Amino acid sequence: MSISIIGAGLAGLSAALTLAEQGVACNLISAQASERAQSVMAEGGINACLDTMGENDSIENHFDDTMRGGVFLADPNAVWGLCRNAPAIVKRFYDLGVPFPVNEKGIVQRSFGGQKKKRTAFVKSSTGKMLMTSLIDEVRKYEARGLVTRLPHHRVQALHIQNDICSGVTVTDSFTDKSVPLPGSVILACGGMNGLFEGMTTGTTQNTAELAALCLENGVELANLEFIQYHPTTVGISGKRLLISEAARGEGGRLFVERNGKPWYFMEEKYPELKNLMPRDVVSAEMVSVVNMPDCGGQVYLDMTGIGMDVWNTRLSDLREQIMHYLDIDPVKKPVPVSPGIHYFMGGIWVDEAHRTSVKHLYAAGECACQYHGANRLGGNSLLGAVYGGKTAAQTALNEGKEAGDAPALKTPEPYFEATPRFRASVSQILTRYLPILRNETELKQALHELDLLEKTAQNPADVRLLRLAQAVAGCALFRKESRGSHRRTDYPETDSACQKQTVVKHNEIFYRDIPELKNHEADN
After folding, report:
1. Pairing of strands 262-264, 296-303
2. Distance between CA atoms of 153 and 159, rounded to whole angstroms?
3. Cα separation, 111 vs 277, whole angstroms
4. Integer Cα distance of 105 and 97 in angstroms
5. 233-340 placed in CATH 3.40.47.10
6. What does the pLDDT look like over 25-48, one tens digit per residue?
7. How high does pLDDT run on average in the chain?
8. In terms of Cα–Cα distance, which of 257, 274, 322 is closest to 125?
């Protein structure tokens, strides 16, 4: 049995570790070293019901907040598994040496958006880096034993899929251009579709979206592509958006806009219960609304001047350093101008509760997969979803690989291509213009029209694949005639219960799929 994992971030490492701990060898393929994966950039924390803050938290509360935050579009069985396994995952990281702060009851947790309880475990605002460091070290032990074979600086040349069955993957060494065929099951852990929105995302520019495009070309189902999360507090820097972590609002940061010459803390007035910690889709939409009001200024600010120095020194010191370095602003003394930027893709490769894709022996986990987050992701659930998803995908691949028999020899694939920079930039410009936080039918149809015209300028097959993916994203946004979570239609401003379904795309066909019903989980309680 052979299993290849594409991507060496948190989901990929979790999958590799799951296999290696059971004595099963795997290949771990990535364009860059794990230390440069997007998972390292995650700041705020990881969610789990540890109930260390005296608030009577429960797994049911975590489940309810996650389903409600995703506006009931996520698979409830997958979400239940995520929330039920979260405490053990966080405790395992603590045992691996992740330096979570602790109190007399255990790991300290803080508030995060869309959640009524303090359940986000953190390490200052460098949680992703700390989790990745622990998993990198743990996986290296199995590399030394020959159970994990690293193939860094490799990119996917071809997925071998025929009759909805995956027989392996061919990868290309970026240094030598040598192709390496790898027969067997494949787990995709390749991150989000940042490459569709160049310069507008907080994520790494190395997540090009080309593997999602390759999946679409090969008939793998994608889902919920219209749900793109705009994080409320970002700042434009060279080539991307700088994230001002939600941890800042969790520790007391306040959003305001100048209204008639005075600061107006609009989230606190409009949402007195959760205030600045409403789900990200709500906060971002409110920011767009207030800056367009005639009596308000055109800029929203994040006021962190009321946060005490003890919090800055013990919980947010790295965030302060980052802001001062990139923006030349000391947030202790001065509010920071912020605006929404693309932060996460809730949609991606369709997977079921066990992380199977629509193609046999092909699995997906992490941000590249459509799972757990529905129409809007809660902060702190992405790191959790990556770890749990990678573990679940690996276990499913292991179980089903035992039944698969020997993989067939792989055919020689077509030459490797990447989308050309000029074509990618043109696609990004169209999507950025017509898929903002607030959308409507006229603009979405214009996006599809301009994408159609762009096809004649394609230079290679990778350009065409990327174009098809962009058309699928815009097409899904046009198909969903309602407002739900991060998908806001000004021409369909209400949430429609008839649309409480997953948007699925296969090749160029878009259709709805029912959400699975929640199974009886009494035995898990």
Report:
1. unpaired
2. 18
3. 8
4. 18
5. no
6. 999 999 999 999 999 999 889 999
7. 95
8. 322
